[in-house]
Design a protein that fits this description.
alpha/beta, TIM Barrel, eight-stranded parallel beta barrel, 13 strands
């Protein structure tokens, strides 16, 4: 897609998948910088186009006591520092029309959370910023139904849209991934991404904190590459056990490079 080619300034292989990766939420400058610098170094070496990801605020939490952020403006300013220092594109989540206008000046991609993927006013607001819009497929939707979400953005005058598979609700406390959804959503003519971390969430835990299976991130990612996905979404952190949000889902930062090396080889094998 031309809008993605224009986004990436770093050296990369045109045959590679692209990567949206970073810590779940902006915690502080130190975690953000360490993660960004490590990701950029790895992706430059492997020629993987990178969009650095971190949420400036987390609106959808399991408990009233869950961490939501360090303050919107402060978090967005820290993201802007990463963008300016490293010349890397950014993606962050938005949850309302007002947030679309607030976040757009700082980032390149606005991400619509899965639970909000049918919110027409939110999708239209994101579209009108003229930023790339990444819509995560709701855990309750079929891949075919995502064409309606896509068309809401396109109808508002923005054709720069990506779709992300993040699993389907399976009972009360688990998700499954139906890989048929990747070619189905690709048939809409837009890039399709696999969210390798949130697809392994285990929601509705008695503790009020969502669980996860980060030990299976590699499996989800390998299958997605084999199924022909265009990009991968992956949250990572220097120390997930101490992360302030979604620590149970994130890949330890030191495990990222060997995983990406394997995925690049799979990608090369299927082309």
């Amino acid at each position: 897609m031309e809008f993605l080619d224009a986004l990436f300034t770093q050296k990369f292989s045109s045959s590679n998948f692209f990567l949206l990766a970073g810590p779940c939420v902006v915690e502080n400058r130190e975690v953000l910088s360490e993660t960004a610098e490590t990701l950029i170094e790895i992706c430059n070496e492997l020629e993987i186009p990178l969009i650095f990801k971190s949420s400036y605020t987390k609106a959808n939490r399991s408990s009233i006591n869950s961490f939501t952020g360090i303050g919107d403006e402060k978090a967005l300013q820290l993201l802007a520092e990463i963008k300016e220092k490293h010349q890397v594109p950014l993606v962050t989540d938005i949850h309302s029309e007002a947030e679309a206008d607030m976040a757009a000046p700082y980032v390149d991609v606005l991400q619509i959370p899965a639970f909000l993927c049918r919110q027409t006013t939110l999708l239209v607001a994101a579209a009108k910023t003229d930023k790339i819009v990444n819509i995560k497929k709701g855990q309750f939707l079929s891949p075919e139904a995502m064409e309606f979400a896509l068309n809401k953005v396109v109808s508002a005058g923005n054709s720069k849209v990506m779709l992300t598979e993040r699993g389907t609700t399976f009972g009360y406390q688990d998700l499954i991934v139906d890989y048929r959804g990747i070619p189905i959503m690709k048939s809409f003519g837009k890039p399709v991404i696999m969210d390798c971390t949130h697809a392994l969430q285990q929601p509705n835990q008695p503790s009020g904190v969502t669980g996860g299976r980060p030990d299976l991130i590699e499996t989800i990612a390998k299958c997605a590459i084999a199924a022909g996905v265009d990009g991968l979404f992956l949250e990572t952190h220097p120390n997930p056990a101490r992360a302030l949000s979604d620590g149970a889902n994130m890949l330890p930062l030191h495990e990222l490079k060997p995983l990406l090396q394997k995925l690049v080889r799979i990608r090369q094998a299927i082309l």
